[in-house]
Design goal:
It is a single chain. This protein is about 35% helix and about 15% strand. With about 240 residues, it is α/β, with parallel strands linked by helices. It has one domain. Strand 8, helix 9 and strand 9 form a beta-alpha-beta unit. Helix 3 crosses helix 9. The longest helix is centred in the first third of the chain and has 13 residues.
Length: about 240
């Protein structure tokens, strides 16, 4: 469970790292600014995914369900006030999730001032697992610092266009009696749906929505599409909770 009193950006990351070290199974799903548009029923098109309220209502409900799913080992990351425009939106996220504070943490847990620590301390632990990766079809797995057992390829706007991958992964888990694997999602809002529905389907594995944190490995220079990946000022930003 995450810290509740004097919530600390680095300490919450260390808690997930310890869970991986100890072989505990859990799921982590994160919700940042893009997901906020979807959950608020506001249109968005950032080139990687898009949401049209009058067309994607069913998909939006999948997102709401993932935000509100509750289990002792299901963890939700929400945008912090320093990255989302202040406390009102941050508090809205917390209220909408309905999660207990010990199951809530930062959406940006793996980025900004935590990214170097994440790469140094968390990513090497992936070597201890058989890894299933969900990421863009253009991903170059040869550059990753760990092996991938199975790769499910997706395209842009996967949370709408590639929902069939959910059932494909469930079938893969069932047919191969998959247990104690690590599932990593580099998939935008699709990562939220996967983290929820796969954990609900089988709680004997670990599922982590890691977002863009490995883009520089998977996509080379084209993957350096975030300030923290380009070593800009955000690489030193320590996010706050309140």
């Amino acid at each position: 469970m995450f810290t509740t009193e004097n919530k600390n950006y680095r300490d919450d990351l260390k808690i997930l790292i310890e869970k991986l070290k100890n072989g505990e199974t859990f799921s982590f799903s994160k919700y940042a600014d893009g997901e906020l548009h979807i959950l608020s029923n506001l249109p968005i098109n950032n080139g990687e995914f898009w949401f049209i309220p009058e067309k994607n209502g069913i998909n939006r409900q999948d997102m709401i369900d993932s935000l509100r799913f509750k289990h002792d080992n299901y963890y939700v990351g929400v945008s912090c006030p320093c990255c989302i425009g202040g406390l009102p939106v941050h508090n809205w996220y917390k209220k909408q999730s309905g999660q207990n504070l010990e199951n809530l943490t930062w959406a940006n847990l793996f980025v900004n001032g935590n990214h170097s620590y994440y790469i140094e301390k968390m990513v090497p632990l992936y070597l201890n697992y058989k890894v299933v990766l969900v990421s863009n079809s253009d991903s170059n797995l040869n550059s990753l610092p760990f092996e991938v057992e199975k790769h499910f390829k997706i395209g842009k706007n996967a949370w709408v266009k590639n929902l069939n991958v959910v059932s494909e992964i469930k079938q893969y888990i069932d047919e191969n009696e998959i247990s104690n694997y690590l599932f990593l999602f580099c998939a935008g809002p699709f990562g939220n749906i996967l983290a929820h529905q796969l954990f609900d389907h089988n709680k004997n594995n670990t599922y982590i929505d890691i977002g863009s944190t490995l883009n520089h490995f998977l996509l080379g220079d084209a993957g350096k599409n975030r300030g923290y990946l380009r070593k800009e000022s955000s690489i030193n930003k320590v996010c706050v909770w309140s």
